[in-house]
Amino acid sequence: xxxxxxxxxxxxxxxxxxxxxxxxxxxxxxxxxxxxxxxxxxxxxxxxxxxxxxxxxxxxxxxxxxxxxxxxxxxxxxxxxxxxxxxxxxxxxxxxxxxxxxxx
Length: 104
What we know:
With 104 residues, this protein is mainly alpha-helical. It has helices at 6-18, 41-49, 55-72, 76-103. The relative contact order is 0.07.
């Protein structure tokens, strides 16, 4: 989609290039770090600065922790409780992934 200010922005950038304002910038010619999806760059930066995690990341970490805990449990009742928790976490993860696929 065309942004209404893209022509003005292009003109400002071209003028800055002509004046040499982009010469000798640190990291010139190197790819920008951590820009998997440039359209999400601002959101990603805000989340990183706030040390925020998406629900999917949190759920995956909790699943790994529960799986590790399950490896060391021998008590049947405790194992059953952790297995139930693991099942709930997998269900939540599936719901989060489906919501992400549908709504982004």
